[in-house]
Amino acid sequence: MRRIGFVGFFLVLGVCLFSCSTPYQTYRANVFEGKDLLNTGDYGKAREDFTKAAQAEPGEPASYALAATAAYKLGDFDAARTYIQEAAKRDRHSDSSIRILGYGSLILLKEGKEQEGLEALHKYILAYQNEYAPFNVRQVERMWRTKKIDLASLENLLDDEIGTYESDMELFRRSGTGWFAQKYMPPPGGPW
């Protein structure tokens, strides 16, 4: 009888422990769901999930940067600016740095702040070339150099570039493979 009581106690304890989520688990779940919604074009619900993620882990810049993306896509540029500023305050060269720089420049350009937007776009280009693949940003660099910005085309280019960068970074973090593995990890049997 006593044995059944212990088993029952540990079973209930296990269920309680596994059903309780930490703020970080809440953050990750909301970012994951939000990214799916963002990719399917459900920007309003995506922004809600990113806002919940920011509330769960207020120090993480990714949720703010993603919320800025969703707000920008919704045409809510005041909110997009606020989110991107919050992301930038929290960013310490995170995986979201590229998104923060890219959407920061889009927001400025959309608001008609051409000089500031071009400066921000140049920072994005330099960061992307330095951190990732220099050849990927040629079209964006051409727009910046000529100062002939087509915002819709620029948004599409940045979405593609940022998406590729973040996918490759996630692949590297999860499995140690992909573009970043080739860049940062020595080849097997390498000189060191």
Task: Briefly say what this structure is.
The chain has two domains: 25-92, Tetratricopeptide repeat domain (Serine Threonine Protein Phosphatase 5, Tetratricopeptide repeat); 95-175.
Can you walk through the features of this model?
- The chain is mainly alpha-helical and 192 residues long.
- Helix content is 78%, strand content 0%.
- It has helices spanning 2-19, 23-39, 43-56, 61-74, 77-90, 97-110, 114-131, 138-146, 151-175, 179-184.
- Helix 6 runs antiparallel to helix 9 (151-175).
How would you describe the shape? globular
Q: How many β-strand stretches?
A: 0
Which structural class best describes the helix and strand composition? mainly alpha
Distance between the termini: 62 Å
**What share of residues is helical?**
over 70%
How many individual helices?
10
Average pLDDT across residues?
88
pLDDT under 50 segments (min length 5)?
Answer: 6-19
Strand content: under 5%
Number of domains: 2
Order of helices and strands: HHHHHHHHHH
**What is the C-alpha radius of gyration, as a whole number of Å?**
21 Å
What characterizes the major β-sheet? none
